[in-house]
Amino acid sequence: MSIVRRIGASPKERGSASGQTCPDIFELSDGNFAVIGTESTAVLDDELPADAGRADYERIVVISRETLIRAKAEIPDA
To answer: How many CA atoms lie within 13 A of 28 on its CB side?
Structure first.
């Protein structure tokens, strides 16, 4: 598995001064996506709907609205 490409604008394009410490979305060689965001499992775990689940090895990660909106056009439909 490897990173194929960034999805959406880079952190620097979204206004990060350093361009190195902001949320990001990447498409992986296996077709999955990787997300860099703020780890928020402890805060949001009890807020999950009854029909949602999280395995012990999974984490809830928050990315900014701008990150996802700017990536939307590059997310494949299928």
So the answer is: 8
